[in-house]
């Protein structure tokens, strides 16, 4: 009986670990988005880079694409209009929540399933890791954007 319980916990661990980290990631990114004044959302360090606001929408778009394509989350449609800071933050909040809900509904054994991906066949666990890694990558860029505007980034939230 103890062996069965430990085995069940071990199978669920990637999902529970992801969800714990995902909530911290959400909190940290939303604090970052709040820290930048709205008039600085168009800021970009160089012409070839995305603006602060574009970075946030890119993060949201990737979350929506990966979670809807591989985990059954509802897809958030892109807007044609220029969005306000509050609208971007609201979309990020919904996107993070959609990912969380989709992952909560995922069976641990489904993480072993292989799926077609533009970079070759991947497991759903690899897609789950990519969701977090992509947010982290662009959030790192946003820290630089805040610092270049003399805005102290929020304190790092790890877990």
Give the DSSP E fraction (strand runs of 2 or more residues).
under 5%
> What radius of gyration results from the CA coordinates?
17 Å
Report the strand count: 2
In one word, what is the shape? globular
What does this structure look like?
With 159 residues, this protein is mostly helical. The protein has helices at residues 2-35, 52-71, 85-104, 124-148, and strands at 114-115, 122-123. Strands 1-2 form a two-stranded antiparallel ribbon. Strand 1 (114-115) and strand 2 (122-123) form a beta hairpin. Helix 1 (2-35) packs antiparallel against helix 3, helix 1 packs parallel to helix 4 (124-148) and helix 2 packs parallel to helix 3 (85-104). It is globular and about 45 Å long. It starts with a helix and ends in an 11-residue tail after the last helix. The model is unreliable at 5-11 (pLDDT under 50).
């Amino acid at each position: 009986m103890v062996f069965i319980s430990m085995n069940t916990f071990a199978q669920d661990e990637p999902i529970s670990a992801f969800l714990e980290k995902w909530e911290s990631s959400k909190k940290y990114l939303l604090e970052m988005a709040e820290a930048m004044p709205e008039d600085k959302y168009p800021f970009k360090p160089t012409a070839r880079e995305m603006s602060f606001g574009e970075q946030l929408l890119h993060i949201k778009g990737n979350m929506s694409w990966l979670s809807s394509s591989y985990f059954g989350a509802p897809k958030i449609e892109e807007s044609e209009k220029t969005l306000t800071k509050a609208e971007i933050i609201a979309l990020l909040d919904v996107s993070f929540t959609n990912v969380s809900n989709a992952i909560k509904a995922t069976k641990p054994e489904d993480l072993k399933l292989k799926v077609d991906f533009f970079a070759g066949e991947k497991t759903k666990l690899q897609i789950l890791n990519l969701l977090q890694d992509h947010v982290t990558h662009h959030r790192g860029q946003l820290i630089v954007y805040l610092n270049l505007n003399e805005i102290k980034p929020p304190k790092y939230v790890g877990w």
